[in-house]
UniProtKB/TrEMBL annotation, chains A, B, C, D, E, F, G, H:
Name under which the protein is recorded: Nickel pincer cofactor biosynthesis protein LarB
InterPro entries: P2CMN_synthase_LarB, PurE_dom
Domain of life: Bacteria
Organism: Nocardioides aquiterrae
Residues in PurE domain copies: 95-226
Amino acid sequence: MDQQDPRIADLGFARVDIDRAARTGDPEVVYGAGKTPDQVVAILRALHERHPERAVLATRLAPEALDVVSRALPDAAIDLVARAVTLGPLPTPTGTVPVVAAGTSDAPVAAEAALTVAVHGAGVDRIDDVGVAGLHRLLGVRDRLEAADCLVVVAGMEGALPSVVGGLTGVPMVAVPTSVGYGASLGGVAALLAMLNSCAPGVTVVNIDNGYGAGVHAARVARQSVPR
Amino acid sequence: MDQQDPRIADLGFARVDIDRAARTGDPEVVYGAGKTPDQVVAILRALHERHPERAVLATRLAPEALDVVSRALPDAAIDLVARAVTLGPLPTPTGTVPVVAAGTSDAPVAAEAALTVAVHGAGVDRIDDVGVAGLHRLLGVRDRLEAADCLVVVAGMEGALPSVVGGLTGVPMVAVPTSVGYGASLGGVAALLAMLNSCAPGVTVVNIDNGYGAGVHAARVARQSVPR
Amino acid sequence: MDQQDPRIADLGFARVDIDRAARTGDPEVVYGAGKTPDQVVAILRALHERHPERAVLATRLAPEALDVVSRALPDAAIDLVARAVTLGPLPTPTGTVPVVAAGTSDAPVAAEAALTVAVHGAGVDRIDDVGVAGLHRLLGVRDRLEAADCLVVVAGMEGALPSVVGGLTGVPMVAVPTSVGYGASLGGVAALLAMLNSCAPGVTVVNIDNGYGAGVHAARVARQSVPR
Amino acid sequence: MDQQDPRIADLGFARVDIDRAARTGDPEVVYGAGKTPDQVVAILRALHERHPERAVLATRLAPEALDVVSRALPDAAIDLVARAVTLGPLPTPTGTVPVVAAGTSDAPVAAEAALTVAVHGAGVDRIDDVGVAGLHRLLGVRDRLEAADCLVVVAGMEGALPSVVGGLTGVPMVAVPTSVGYGASLGGVAALLAMLNSCAPGVTVVNIDNGYGAGVHAARVARQSVPR
Amino acid sequence: MDQQDPRIADLGFARVDIDRAARTGDPEVVYGAGKTPDQVVAILRALHERHPERAVLATRLAPEALDVVSRALPDAAIDLVARAVTLGPLPTPTGTVPVVAAGTSDAPVAAEAALTVAVHGAGVDRIDDVGVAGLHRLLGVRDRLEAADCLVVVAGMEGALPSVVGGLTGVPMVAVPTSVGYGASLGGVAALLAMLNSCAPGVTVVNIDNGYGAGVHAARVARQSVPR
Amino acid sequence: MDQQDPRIADLGFARVDIDRAARTGDPEVVYGAGKTPDQVVAILRALHERHPERAVLATRLAPEALDVVSRALPDAAIDLVARAVTLGPLPTPTGTVPVVAAGTSDAPVAAEAALTVAVHGAGVDRIDDVGVAGLHRLLGVRDRLEAADCLVVVAGMEGALPSVVGGLTGVPMVAVPTSVGYGASLGGVAALLAMLNSCAPGVTVVNIDNGYGAGVHAARVARQSVPR
Amino acid sequence: MDQQDPRIADLGFARVDIDRAARTGDPEVVYGAGKTPDQVVAILRALHERHPERAVLATRLAPEALDVVSRALPDAAIDLVARAVTLGPLPTPTGTVPVVAAGTSDAPVAAEAALTVAVHGAGVDRIDDVGVAGLHRLLGVRDRLEAADCLVVVAGMEGALPSVVGGLTGVPMVAVPTSVGYGASLGGVAALLAMLNSCAPGVTVVNIDNGYGAGVHAARVARQSVPR
Amino acid sequence: MDQQDPRIADLGFARVDIDRAARTGDPEVVYGAGKTPDQVVAILRALHERHPERAVLATRLAPEALDVVSRALPDAAIDLVARAVTLGPLPTPTGTVPVVAAGTSDAPVAAEAALTVAVHGAGVDRIDDVGVAGLHRLLGVRDRLEAADCLVVVAGMEGALPSVVGGLTGVPMVAVPTSVGYGASLGGVAALLAMLNSCAPGVTVVNIDNGYGAGVHAARVARQSVPR
């Protein structure tokens, strides 16, 4: 009977997979969208109890969920910009992942990516407001890009930043389109298409606003990279 | 009776507007798509007879049309890359329009834009192969961009070049998305959307592969600009 | 270290590029969408302090932001229709840009375009309610169209106005599709596609509702045009 | 048994509805796309035999089908531009339907509409090359528009003509978008969307390139209209 | 000066075309979307004053606008289902237009079409809840369909009703897709596409939820039809 | 080592799953698109050798593949309309699946569905040319619909037939949209969307032109149904 | 006169088809979207009065409708997750339909499907949280899948679950895409497309979030299946 | 003058960037689409002359280009399945990249990815025909997946394979959607959307059919990974 499967925590309203770390080496993560604040608290608590020695991450939390979690779990660390929380100690970072963002409005996605990288065991280097319409700022941080194990590049609107960054360095890169824009940005589809069509070789892409997915990939790459 | 309207040349299969120059100051143009080679020759000849002192332009000619035209109208100048011909003397150029292209595959669209600019009375400066994944080439021609009256910037795939150029200079710019690409480029829609969402202010856009439209706009701007 | 880059004003939550005027000749602009009212005030104040002699523009301000700005910056000029503010003296206008709008509902976009033109140093001529279903009004203002240095033409729904205007005059034109409409207007995509496919030569297009972008382009053209 | 249903002619490869005239008052029509030339001939012959006193129409015939039909049915009238044939005498026309076309490339669709109108019993008035970028031609035929019982207005690219015509007259109108164009015309979708969003009241629309459908509707309206 | 054009009523916030009746024979109409209740009242009052002898129509009014109008203009007739009002006497009806609706949820669009037909001078016959999944109801009203001068057929979801009605009768028809549905109905696009691809000849289509446009076309056809 | 997996036949260019029958009770099927005629022959032969007692099906064969197969495998049964072949004896049919098609052009998809049903062990009843614009034919076969175990309903263009059939009977139904149509049919997407939005309860849908998929589902349902 | 048609219950605001059971063998169902709570109560009551011996189902009820119904009809059974109610005794179940859901967020759609199956006379087996990223859970319930008469498989995001289930068993299956996801999920279109393109043979699909439609089809199949 | 820029090889028809290796550590690559066979030969020769010690790669070569290259450059290694060639010695592989493909039709894209991985310096492990509808094959190669430094997972149709693989292992993964499919696969868009919405964390995606891009990313990750 799978009810007694030790890889599953049955909370009644959900059957939580608590075996992911064994399979993939990654921490447990709660995707908060569509869950009530109480459900988020219950899942965080259950996962934390099984593995108190490593951080659990919850993402996509509405303001009220962030509020309920902060009161119910005083030990949780709240990241208001990323709309996410962690519970338990962050791992010692291995390698470095710059999270490069084009504009101020991309901050929530960049913050989600950065927190995800940290929870998944890699070091983070935030580089903000380096949009392609002002190249001097981007060219000024070229050394930090080159020193990385994997890059996360976040941009909305025309989504051009990954192409320019990809021309400057051969470091593995994940591009994250954001829904920043209006009209013909089509909710981020314009940036997504641009990144998929990048003329820079080796740019890989995740879903619109999916800082979490980019962070997981980048941290996995950084963790397994030869130290510089 | 509009049949005797002196602003119209009735060729039987088409009623050609020969009054455009009076209304807009631009030369007559034949859009070749969907016309037989013989029709193209007939229209070119009719327009040239009315105004032998200025060039007529025919665009979007299939290889066989280019061949028929070159034999029927030996005085016509054939541009194989642009798939276009001119008949009659080009005007003296006023002002300068750089036509900036991202990649080799964008050459036909860039050539159509360049020829259109020349026929419409402005000077052309071709700048090729300056894609955003190799910024050093683009930065190397910054002076030529700054010296322009209007820019035409041509790019396919992710369409990022106008954003980068628009960050380097405040010269008026027309961006031309091309259908170069595959898969998620959706026949040039990805580049079109990117250009419409450019974070560089003042970028205007024309239809996919529409070098002609960009050339008309740029030449009009250049013709009326204060000489430098 | 780019933190000390004199071209950047670091406000903590954003790194503001205060060097644009040197690069492009244009004023500083704050894109208000996604920023808190307090952030808008802080950026406006910072930019104004650096360059008190020229106007700063803030666009896409929600009603509460307009309210906060008007109270915090009593010298700011509020444009409720354009949902925008300026701070500092407008430049002396050079050249003329008619802003032509098809319908009453297009007024916010037309107002944003008009204010942008003025802030960027060109003169504005507003021509409203000249939709293509009532040609007599449009034909009545033909002289004002012909006298222009660059046209901004604003229309929603079927977006036909630029084609008709483009048949009347050869003045350089920027067309602005608006999101006015419902159903198959697809949030302005119908008007955008129509303008990109205009049979009038030389029509260039900006993003849906992007009065700002059209105004920047038109003002740049007008500023550099030979006085009539 | 429906095999013996007198309303159906069973040709083996198809069961032809020969009862439409009784139900709708319209002639029999063969949609030629996807049928072999021999099948077209067989259906035309069968329908003509049942009702030799009235014309049968076949549309969307490929060049080889036109050729086979003209040889197999010497009495058939071939319309090469419309890619259609009729067999049997056309009815006496009742009322008038102008078929108004924007450009030369729209001729095949306009010709299909015109022939359909005639076969369905209304008079046709062809008005060609009256695109919106040259208003003087359109304004010159205003009397012919006003004198109509129903209008068919055909346009590709930006599809603006119905809006302009609809502002000139209150005659019932059917708009036909064509696939003329490239790039962002999306195979005629741009013109289709424009017509559906027309600001002129009462514009109705048919499928892209569907001259036949527009002709049926317009002829039905003309046939039942009070004579002028 | 067009300010004194007697065909225009200048209300400050809008320039109202009061000449439409002379051009098209139709009444004045106010499109209420995007207008404040006070603007609607002002325009209705101005139009009514010029032509008190015939009804003015205002459509797409939000509940608060309906409320304001009913208090400010006690003589106005309010149609809560159609979200529309009329002011002034309805014309004597000429001819008959059945408004056929597939489902209960299509009622607002059908009501807008019906009121528009009445205001534009034709008689209305409402036929509701005759969706194609219950053919017996539709077959039961076949006589009323046949007796019509023009049909308005309203349906959401799969939009199949016009095809079935078009197979039953040859009366001219306008199909109105509605936004009723969810998921893959894409806000009414599924019904719109179905109607544009109808296998019944002569079906014409208007924009999603555009009962007004269908009503204008149908009333025009009915008014000019030979009485039965 | 999976190379020796008895469930796989390794043909060099492909590893063929020969275990499907054990897992699902269905015959082996070769999807011919993208395979050379020789590959199709090789796979058919290999599958037939393992299970000579039951038919193998190959679908989506180009004309040359049909030709090569008929010569290489003289025992194969060729279905030119379905562009498919079977090799080996068809099973004894259990239950009945009517394959109902709207128009003549839908014949290839209907034929693929019918052959698939037969190969998968159910009886087939073909009902053709029963489009919704001629209801009398459809109403005439109502008894055959009611007597079925599962229906396959095939239609292109507006895809309305499943809704009408679904209103006549409660027999389980699979709807198959076809790519028959042009313009706004968008290659069958219009019919697909219509079927997904059917107002008739219980209509399920497969991919455009996927007669095979519909046939598999319908045959499975028919095989397990209580005999009538 | 159809007003007295005994197959129709005329409630004033709607004409309810009370004859479906006779035609299709299924219970009456009220689609609650777009209806007021009072209308839902009235229709439920009317249908229940005609057929008190079998359950009536109402779906897509907003929270306030659920509340009104529970107070007005104390005998109704409320399903808060499915947002649905039943009134009257459920039928004795025949056959078994597992409702298999990929994630917790798919619960509302799965609940609607399950309740629909039960109301339509088949037995339900709920299998939740068996997403493809954790195959061990799915493989653990393989026996329950194999024992079914028809499967309902519910998934959002990438919609991969039906393909994996379809590889495990040959039981007839209906796949239900859900709108769970963000960005490039396009409101469930990504999952819908994935299911339509499933490489597992015989997967049929319903509209996004249409648990009701899947339940109707599956129950019909189960009811007519040979008992195991 | 950039003409003498040592980082550029000017071949007349193209300006080839020969500096990429210095910037990114990757080999030179020729994108063959849109280039004549002679141009491909010329560029390959030029790049090979500058760096004879390392392989040059040319992709997307039409059959005639493969033929011309093989005759003009006898030392080139031709990969007919990948439609690609290499010239010069492959580097010693570092790390391992399995290229996992769902179906036989995905072979060209998988071959392009595999060759790209090899040219970029990593080892390749090909795993073919492991579609999700036959899980046993995929589960049989789980060890090879776990032993990898980075995975390339290739699938068309519903694109489900990356989600299933991503649930089995935490190795960094790049997913490649292919254009294999028909109808609602929309040329690979269905698979692309599915992969972008994968419920498995950390899946990154490249353009449709872009085996090259996936190979570059995966090889970069593998080269820098700690040896196992």
